């Protein structure tokens, strides 16, 4: 029941925000903040309750389960379940949601109610994607989060927003349809062997499939998640969407929506199709490494700050792909860490760029210089997150990437070596970002106020998060461990 | 009396039908197009009568009655529309009827 | 004819009698409101009689009609759709000072034709139903006499429909020549004993021309955009739903009598038609700026989707077809309902421009339109999503990979134009209001033309359409969240088919 609440709270909060937005512009902001706060506390409370013994030792994978028949004709049930892995993601979702509301407090001044409605519904969709354990329900939420995101980009975005929104929508929707085909095909294959039509993940695990069928279905899942992640040949929507979205939109895209792709890879692609995934692993890992290098090189070449940050996402999430298909405990731990740390570091960079844009109305790196003197707090923050992004030891990202590399090493030495080169590129673009924008002479004679308390608070949370993850990641690793070991055992069977 | 084989009579019906169809495609005058449709419908009627006589059943003739009735109704409406059209446009050439194109100038 | 026959046919009888009653009423006194009330009352009464008819179902009214759960389900669907069209028509016609009353006679007759079609079990009833439906629609399409487009639309539709009827009847004659029976069941039994179909094969192919025309699948789709654009909006809604739905119901019944592999050549043709419709419909819609034409192309694609489930040839597929048609009816009626409410006495709100900024002026209507479009696009929380899922499931189960991939591709293309309209509705009313340069996704040429003044002067939605639209909205979202009751109902209704 609590699981249902986790989805219902943002849904209802969104509705309420929309309705009350007609009366006062601040009402939606406070309602959203309150709803997300309640959701966050609820999720955190669930976490603290189960963090200790129950989740770790228990044979039963799920900490909590909620199931209700939905469309019995197709064997579909409204089935949510919580384990350590998606608990982490849900807590992260609510936290990032709060930060997104915080960072758009001043930025959004038109149609505030509708904005928050969309924001909350995206978050509800993301929570649903993380919690759904019925594949149809998963697809339902997967699609559900697209429409409000489309509106977020298309209404409150920058100059070329409509194009970017359409591109985003069509890429994700088209790949989503492949996912749907693969899901349906898997369910019917399962029916033909077991006689039961079901979309339940736990029942579909271990469905015997012929080699070709398994490969096709695996590709259906993989392409859908690869578009979201994004994996290099399918990434072209991402720089546009990130660049044109309002700050909150970029933050949610980078910090949460891309993670749904990573989550899908871990939860579905490999466990459901172990043989096909293993056959495909060399290609996938190569794509991951290409992503790391390609994203880093393009990030270096950008002058638009938002585009730059967007390409760093491509690079960082290449590690996720590499780690998932290395498929061992070290690599998967790294992947989980990377998912969380990337949310903070990239999310924070988007918040910073958004704050800068609000003040200077430009994102052009060539026009910005010497801003440290104008806004020292902002400069310090940018420095910190750039360092996090390049993988400074002591911060979460370092740990995540090292874990992935350590996990990938026994699988493929050359690919690991190439991925390591990506870390060097990361240093170059991160340093370039900070030195161009904040160091040097203030040639543009920029004058503006430094970070406000609200902005500093938003970024501060992320700073604390990254330092904590870098110094004491054990709780996160512990939370994900039972799930990961279960997933690994599925593979060995 | 030697009955005419069904295949041959059906061939006649098919030829009639084709003539009607060709007329429909070639003629650009609405009245002639209506006549062509009439010919096609009657070809179908003939085919029904032929098939009915082959099976020694009244079904074909019943169907033929329905077909003429319907053809009459259709032509009545067709001619009414032609009259309406005549007052709007000085011609009965279908190629002149081009108001329904594209969204912009309609 | 005994009492049971009369009870089983009561929906048809009530609709037919209402049409006659209206004719008599008009000859006594012209009163639009009274006539409309009588028509709607007749439709409602016919719907109310369906449970009685269901009590005696399945009942074969020898030899022409079949009153089984399937026929009654579709009858209810058609009657409900006609009722909605009737509600929309009243206010639409009220704004136009013409002879309004006869319209309802035609509406009822066309509905009667549809009811005959869904119960048809025999070539004679098929032909009668089809022609009652078509002939009434010829007049309805051309009904708005003040519109310069009316007569042209009417004559074009008449010529094409007449040709397709001729094809259909000739095809029937060939099938009859081969089998010697006009009844579906014996006909299928007869054909299945034969070595090959002989004359019946070209016959059935020619019948498909007639069917394809009514369903507006590629390549028989040419009339669709023109008739959709030229006909009055409520009539367009009627043509888009009742006429196509009735024809599809018939198609399903006809082919359900055949074994799967017997009719394989015909199924292959239909498969090609489905693929062509899905792709061509969606691609052609990309180019449209007229909303009615856009919906016309989209309906071509949708009929292609339904055909995919039809090709599955299983009761699973039949259920998917039926559910999809219900979803399509609801979404299409909602979309045309919004257009109808936005139209005024002089012109119809069918240009993209008329929808600009609708969201900020008429939020309820815009939200409903958005929901309808998203449902047509198959986005979650709407009926269209579940329906599309059902169709995909049926297609995948029958391993129809090529059509299913065409469906996926078509839906992805389709999104583009549905969203384009949504974006236009979300744009600011006046393009210059927007501080950002790019106001819409549509080309600049459009922004130079002023929106329809009727839209800038919001009027209250009249009670009839408001009622119809609220019901549609409830179903649109309700069936998207809780489809199970309807699904079970469809399952029990359709089960008698195979």
Brief overview, please?
The complex is a heterotrimer of chains A (493), B (106) and C (498). Chain A is mainly alpha-helical. Chain A is built from 20 helices and two strands.
Explained architecture:
The complex is a heterotrimer of chains A (493), B (106) and C (498). Chain A has 493 residues and is mainly alpha-helical. Chain A has a domain at 288-493. Helices cover 76% and strands 3% of the residues of chain A. Chain A is built from 20 helices and 2 strands. In chain A, β1 (64-71) and β2 form a beta hairpin. The longest helix of chain A has 34 residues, at 161-194. Helix content of chain B is 72%, strand content 0%. Chain B is elongated and about 55 Å long. Chain C is built from 23 helices and 2 strands. In chain C, α7 (123-141) packs antiparallel against α8 (150-179) and α17 (363-377) packs antiparallel against α19. Chain C has 2 domains: 1-258; 260-498, no CATH class. Chain C has helices at 3-8, 10-28, 32-48, 50-56, 69-94, 102-119, 123-141, 150-179, 184-193, 200-215, 223-230, 233-256, 264-285, 291-311, 315-342, 358-361, 363-377, 383-397, 401-426, 444-447, 453-456, 463-481, 484-494, and strands spanning 59-61, 65-67. Chains in contact: A-C, B-C. The interface between B and C is large, with 48 and 48 residues.
The side-by-side strand order for the widest beta sheet of chain A comes to: 1-2
Number of domains of chain B: 1
Radius of gyration of chain B: 18 Å
**Average pLDDT of chain A:** 88
Question: From the helix content, strand content and strand pairing of chain B, which structural class follows?
Answer: mainly alpha
- Briefly note the CATH topology name of chain B: Helix Hairpins
Which band does the percent of strand residues of chain B land in? under 5%
Taking the alpha carbons of the first and last residues of chain A, their distance comes to 33 Å
- How many β-strand stretches of chain B? 0
Overall geometric form of chain B: elongated
**Strand segment tally of chain A:** 2
Summed up, the helix count of chain B is 3
């Amino acid at each position: 029941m609590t699981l249902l609440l986790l989805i219902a709270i943002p849904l209802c909060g969104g509705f309420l925000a929309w309705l009350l937005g007609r009366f006062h512009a601040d009402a939606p902001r406070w309602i959203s903040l309150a709803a997300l706060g309640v959701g966050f506390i609820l999720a955190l409370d669930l976490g603290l309750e189960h963090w200790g013994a129950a989740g770790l030792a228990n044979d039963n994978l799920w900490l909590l389960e909620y199931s209700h028949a939905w469309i019995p004709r197709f064997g579909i049930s409204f089935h949510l379940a919580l384990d350590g892995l998606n608990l982490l993601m849900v807590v992260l979702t609510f936290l990032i949601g709060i930060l997104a509301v915080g960072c758009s407090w001043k930025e959004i001044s038109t149609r505030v109610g509708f904005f928050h409605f969309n924001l909350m519904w995206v978050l509800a969709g993301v929570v649903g994607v993380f919690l759904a354990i019925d594949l149809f329900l998963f697809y339902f939420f997967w699609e559900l989060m697209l429409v409000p995101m489309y509106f977020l980009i298309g209404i409150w975005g920058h100059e070329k927003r409509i194009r970017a929104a359409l591109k985003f929508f069509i890429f994700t929707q088209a790949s989503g349809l492949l996912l749907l085909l693969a899901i349906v095909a898997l369910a019917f294959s399962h029916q033909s062997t077991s006689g039961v039509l079901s979309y339940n993940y736990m029942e579909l695990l271990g469905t015997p499939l012929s080699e070709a069928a398994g490969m096709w279905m695996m590709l259906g899942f993989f392409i859908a998640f690869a578009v979201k992640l994004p994996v290099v040949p399918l990434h072209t929507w991402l720089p546009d969407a990130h660049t044109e979205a309002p700050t909150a939109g970029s933050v949610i895209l980078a910090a949460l929506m891309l993670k749904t792709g990573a989550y899908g890879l871990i939860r579905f692609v490999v466990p459901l199709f172990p043989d096909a995934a293993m056959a495909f692993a060399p290609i996938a890992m190569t794509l991951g490494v290409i992503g790391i290098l390609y994203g880093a090189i393009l990030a270096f070449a950008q002058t638009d700050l938002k585009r730059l940050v967007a390409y760093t996402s491509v690079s960082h999430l290449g590690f996720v792909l590499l780690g998932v298909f290395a498929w061992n405990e070290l690599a998967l731990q790294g992947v989980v860490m990377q998912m969380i740390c990337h949310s903070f570091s990239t999310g924070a960079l988007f918040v910073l760029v958004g704050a800068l844009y609000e003040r200077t109305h430009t994102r052009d790196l060539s026009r910005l210089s010497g801003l440290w003197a104008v806004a020292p707090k902002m400069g310090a923050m940018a420095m910190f997150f750039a360092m996090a992004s390049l993988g400074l030891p002591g911060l979460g990202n370092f740990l995540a990437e090292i874990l992935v590399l350590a996990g990938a090493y026994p699988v493929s030495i050359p690919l690991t070596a190439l991925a390591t080169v990506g870390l060097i590129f990361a240093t170059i673009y991160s340093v370039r970002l900070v030195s161009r924008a904040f160091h040097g002479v203030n040639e543009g004679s920029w004058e503006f106020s430094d970070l406000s308390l609200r902005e500093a608070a938003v970024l501060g949370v992320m700073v604390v998060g990254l330092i904590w993850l870098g110094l004491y990641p054990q709780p996160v690793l512990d939370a994900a461990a039972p799930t990961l070991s279960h997933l690994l055992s599925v593979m060995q069977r | 009396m030697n009955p005419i084989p069904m295949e041959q009579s059906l061939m006649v019906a098919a030829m009639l039908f084709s003539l009607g169809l060709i007329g429909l495609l070639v003629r650009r005058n609405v009245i002639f197009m209506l006549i062509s449709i009439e010919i096609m419908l009657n070809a179908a009627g003939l085919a029904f009568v032929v098939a009915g006589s082959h099976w020694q059943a009244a079904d074909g003739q019943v169907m033929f009655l329905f077909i003429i009735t319907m053809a009459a109704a259709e032509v009545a409406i067709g001619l009414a529309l032609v009259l309406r059209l005549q007052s709007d446009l000085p011609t009965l050439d279908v190629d002149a009827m081009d108001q329904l194109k594209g969204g912009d100038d309609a | 004819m005994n009492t049971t026959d009369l009870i089983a046919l009561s929906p048809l009888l009530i609709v037919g009698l209402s049409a006659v009653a209206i004719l008599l009423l008009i000859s006594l006194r012209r009163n639009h409101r009274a006539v409309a009330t009588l028509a709607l009352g007749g439709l409602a009464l016919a719907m109310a009689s369906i449970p009685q008819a269901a009590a005696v179902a399945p009942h074969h009214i020898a030899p022409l009609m079949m009153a089984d759960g399937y026929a009654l389900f579709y009858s209810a669907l058609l009657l409900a759709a006609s009722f909605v069209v009737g509600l929309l028509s009243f206010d639409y016609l009220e704004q136009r000072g013409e002879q309004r009353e006869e319209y309802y006679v035609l509406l009822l007759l066309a509905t009667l034709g549809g009811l005959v079609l869904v119960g048809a079990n025999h070539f004679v009833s098929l032909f009668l139903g089809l022609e009652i439906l078509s002939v009434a629609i010829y007049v309805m399409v051309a009904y708005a006499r003040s519109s310069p487009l009316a007569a042209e639309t009417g004559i074009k539709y008449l010529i094409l429909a007449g040709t397709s009827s001729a094809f259909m009847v000739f095809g029937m004659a060939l099938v009859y020549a081969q089998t010697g029976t006009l009844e579906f069941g014996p006909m299928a039994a007869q054909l299945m004993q034969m070595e090959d179909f002989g004359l019946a094969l070209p016959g059935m192919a020619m019948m498909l021309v007639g069917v394809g025309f009514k369903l507006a699948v590629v390549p028989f789709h040419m009339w669709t955009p023109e008739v959709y654009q030229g006909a009055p909006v409520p009539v367009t809604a009627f043509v888009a739903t009742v006429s196509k739905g009735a024809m599809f119901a018939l198609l399903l019944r006809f082919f359900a009598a055949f074994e799967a592999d017997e009719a394989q050549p015909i199924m292959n043709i239909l498969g090609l038609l489905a693929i062509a419709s899905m792709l061509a419909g969606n691609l052609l819609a990309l180019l449209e700026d007229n909303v009615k034409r856009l919906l016309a192309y989209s309906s071509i694609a949708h009929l292609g989707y339904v055909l995919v489930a039809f090709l599955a040839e299983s009761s699973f597929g039949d259920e998917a077809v039926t559910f999809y048609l219900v979803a399509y009816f609801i979404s299409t009626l909602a979309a045309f309902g919004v257009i109808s409410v936005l139209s005024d006495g002089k012109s119809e709100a069918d240009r993209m421009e008329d929808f600009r900024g609708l969201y900020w002026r008429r939020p309820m209507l815009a939200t409903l339109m958005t929901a309808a479009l998203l449902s047509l696009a198959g986005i979650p929380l709407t009926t269209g999503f579940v329906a599309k899922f059902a169709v995909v499931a049926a297609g995948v189960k029958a391993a129809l990979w090529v059509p299913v991939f065409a469906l996926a591709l078509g839906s992805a293309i389709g999104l583009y134009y549905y969203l384009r309209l949504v974006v236009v509705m979300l744009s600011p009313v006046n393009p210059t209001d927007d501080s950002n340069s790019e106001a819409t996704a549509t080309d600049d040429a459009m922004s130079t033309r002023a929106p329809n003044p009727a839209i800038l002067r919001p009027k209250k939605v009249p009670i009839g359409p408001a009622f119809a639209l609220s019901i549609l909205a409830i179903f649109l979202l309700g069936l998207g969240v809780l489809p199970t009751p309807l699904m079970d109902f469809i399952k029990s209704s359709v089960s008698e088919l195979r």
